[in-house]
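Escalation from tier 1.

The customer reports that the assembly of two entities below gives different structure tokens on two consecutive runs. Tier 1 could not reproduce it. I'm attaching the input and our single run for tier 2 to review.
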Amino acid sequence: NAGVMQNPRHLVRRRGQEARLRCSPMKGHSHVYWYRQLPEEGLKFMVYLQKENIIDESGMPKERFSAEFPKEGPSILRIQQVVRGDSAAYFCASSRDRAVTNTEAFFGQGTRLTVV
Amino acid sequence: GEDVEQSLFLSVREGDSSVINCTYTDSSSTYLYWYKQEPGAGLQLLTYIFSNMDMKQDQRLTVLLNKKDKHLSLRIADTQTGDSAIYFCADSVDDKIIFGKGTRLHILP
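Tier 1 run:
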């Protein structure tokens, strides 16, 4: 049973370009969470999705950021018109049930985005 | 809003015990977690404790929870060089896991 798969592991974008980060949850998991880790910081919650639904996007910046988790395929975190401040590690986690009732959310290895 | 606080650095001699402390603000937490992050890697769930417990032991790891003071600690017995990492305290709030900034554990020879 493969773990949470994120790709790419490293992504370099020029300012103004778009970044697409992909997350394939563990088999049987229908809950996906995206977190951002700035250098020397902890992980900040961005968005919680179930298949085809956004459940909680209270941590998402109001502009340029969007997320989806379609019926088929991975979850996508999309950042339009990237700026230097978007440089960070983006982690995805998945769980079988909601995190509050489930003891474990499994994390991917992260995508390290560098904006130049 | 919800907050999780922990000290940023801890240095411990190899073979000694490490104690990492954490405080949290939410009073409705269900689970509290400790995650480990090695350089360049993702997060590994080390252990967790249900909010109605006050202690949990798992091999070299001991978690203590003081719900009244909203204080959580992780004790690593017989600290080894492989324990060098960042340790994140985390709280489950609503549908989210809220993380502290992490404690960087440095092992002295």
